[in-house]
Design goal:
single chain; about 60 residues; mainly alpha; 1 helix
């Protein structure tokens, strides 16, 4: 369900706590590591588990 734009409160970024974004850094790095291992084998991402020719251009013919 989307929020009604007329009822949203606005505030400056300065008003937020500056350390909040750093609160879960370890969790973010863990999530990236798990995500990288899970998707690299099936996508065109170059990486440890990527396919050998994954980062080449597609053959238009």
């Amino acid at each position: 369900m989307l929020a009604d734009p007329l009822t949203l409160t606005t505030g400056l970024i300065e008003d937020e706590e500056s350390l909040r974004s750093w609160g879960d850094v370890n969790g973010d790095f863990l999530e990236m590591a798990v995500h990288r291992g899970a998707v690299a084998a099936g996508h065109d991402d170059a990486g440890t588990f990527a396919h050998r020719r994954a980062d080449r251009t597609e053959d238009p013919g």
